[in-house]
Structures are given as C-alpha cells and as structure tokens.
TrEMBL record:
Domain of life: Eukaryota
GO cellular component, one term: extracellular matrix
A Pfam family this chain is assigned to: UCMA
InterPro entries the UniProt entry points to: UCMA
Name listed for the protein in its UniProt record: Unique cartilage matrix-associated protein
Keyword Coiled coil: yes
UniProt record, GO biological process: embryonic skeletal system development; regulation of osteoblast differentiation
Organism of derivation: Lates calcarifer
C-alpha cells in the first residue's frame, strides 16, 4: 500500500488539474513581472525626460547669461559677437 500511496501522490502532482494550477500560477508570476518591467520602464522614461528638460533649461540659462554678458561688455567700437562669427 505504501507503493500505491506514493504512486497516487505522484499522479496527483502531475495530474492535469495540478498542472493547470501550476500554469495559472506561472501566468500570474509572468504578469506580475511584466507589470514591474513596465513600471520601471515608465519611471526610467520619466527620469530621462526630466533630465533632458533640465539640460535644455540649463542651456537656455547659459545662453541668456552669455548674451547678457556680451551686451554689458560691448564697447560699441567693434561689431557685436553675432556679426563676428567665423563659422555658423
């Protein structure tokens, strides 16, 4: 009877009903992994967008600051910097 019980237990483990339960659990795990992946991808995209905006704003502040410096230091004797460029 011990052999029969062991065989019966093994059949239960690999029975269609338990394999469908395992498959359902696996689908849940895969779905959770996919949600985590999408969440982290979205956060990464948000960070990259924010970093790009910050970089663009810093470039604009630098450009404005440089322009103000040029206007303040322009002596009127030479053409302004915009007209004195060697390369565009």
């Amino acid at each position: 009877t011990a052999t029969y019980q062991k065989y019966h237990f093994l059949c239960f483990i690999i029975s269609p009903s338990s394999s469908s339960v395992l498959a359902a659990e696996q689908r849940l795990v895969l779905a959770a992994d996919e949600r985590k992946r999408e969440f982290h991808e979205e956060k990464r995209n948000e960070f990259e967008s924010h970093a790009e905006e910050e970089h663009d704003e810093q470039d604009e502040r630098t450009r404005e600051s440089t322009e103000q410096w040029r206007e303040f230091h322009y002596d009127g004797m030479h053409p302004p910097h915009e007209y004195n460029r060697h390369a565009i």
